[in-house]
From TrEMBL:
<comment type="function">
    <text>O-methyltransferase that catalyzes the 2 O-methylation steps in the ubiquinone biosynthetic pathway.</text>
</comment>
<keyword id="KW-0830">Ubiquinone</keyword>
<dbReference type="InterPro" id="IPR029063">
    <property type="entry name" value="SAM-dependent_MTases_sf"/>
</dbReference>
<feature type="binding site">
    <location>
        <position position="57"/>
    </location>
    <ligand>
        <name>S-adenosyl-L-methionine</name>
    </ligand>
</feature>
<dbReference type="GO" id="GO:0010420">
    <property type="term" value="F:polyprenyldihydroxybenzoate methyltransferase activity"/>
</dbReference>
<dbReference type="GO" id="GO:0032259">
    <property type="term" value="P:methylation"/>
</dbReference>
<keyword id="KW-0489">Methyltransferase</keyword>
<comment type="pathway">
    <text>Cofactor biosynthesis; ubiquinone biosynthesis.</text>
</comment>
<feature type="binding site">
    <location>
        <position position="78"/>
    </location>
    <ligand>
        <name>S-adenosyl-L-methionine</name>
    </ligand>
</feature>
<dbReference type="GO" id="GO:0102208">
    <property type="term" value="F:2-polyprenyl-6-hydroxyphenol methylase activity"/>
</dbReference>
<dbReference type="Pfam" id="PF13489">
    <property type="entry name" value="Methyltransf_23"/>
</dbReference>
<dbReference type="GO" id="GO:0061542">
    <property type="term" value="F:3-demethylubiquinol 3-O-methyltransferase activity"/>
</dbReference>
<dbReference type="InterPro" id="IPR010233">
    <property type="entry name" value="UbiG_MeTrfase"/>
</dbReference>
<feature type="binding site">
    <location>
        <position position="123"/>
    </location>
    <ligand>
        <name>S-adenosyl-L-methionine</name>
    </ligand>
</feature>
<protein>
    <recommendedName>
        <fullName>Ubiquinone biosynthesis O-methyltransferase</fullName>
        <ecNumber>2.1.1.222</ecNumber>
        <ecNumber>2.1.1.64</ecNumber>
    </recommendedName>
</protein>
<keyword id="KW-0808">Transferase</keyword>
<keyword id="KW-0949">S-adenosyl-L-methionine</keyword>
Amino acid sequence: MHANADPKELAKFSELAHKWWDPESEFRPLHRINPLRLGWIEQCTGPLAGRRIVDVGCGGGILSEAMAQRGAEVLGVDLAERSLKVAQLHALESGQAGVSYRLVSAEALAAEQPGQFDIVTCMEMVEHVPDPAAIVDACARLVKPGGWVFLSTLNRNLKSFLFAIVGAEYVLKLLPAGTHEYAKFIRPSELMRACREAGLTPQQTRGMQYNPLTQRYWLNDDTSVNYLVACRKDPDAA
């Protein structure tokens, strides 16, 4: 069940696990963009209160906790055990009862709980696995008919190589060197095709931009580097 995971990627995030909740650490960009991601999800779905959500590739739980704070019942899943332990500890320390975590693959959970979630999020994760389409398919199986699936990743082109790897990892040092592999980046057309083949209908695509001078992030229509996709499952799906 753990075949669709890269041991090197899991080890990389495990080594940094203790830094997940340090807003000035290597995970600073995730802390900065989290309000944008959360706001966009709510803009698409409406209030999260009472919704059952699974956060695939939850890492240390930054997005998972934020959704639970909005009143959702959130399950965060990941295969990096040390990251999950950090997420569990932080939830205990913050008193956030609406979130729980499991060491389980998306594919295994989809086989166990098909169609049990109102919303599925999978952020900054598909570019770190050997078979991204299998993750998208698992997300589609996890969500209820009419439910939402949210994905984010990095486009594959010269600009994204220069911005996301050369710029972010080596010049600005926003991320540790080696965080991303350019060959694993995914073009929007490729991700959209995987979504459609999994029975999901893309509803909206947004790009995420960063100004290194002002250190400000924002969403717009430019998907040339970082981008997010919102999909819905057919309400009549079996």
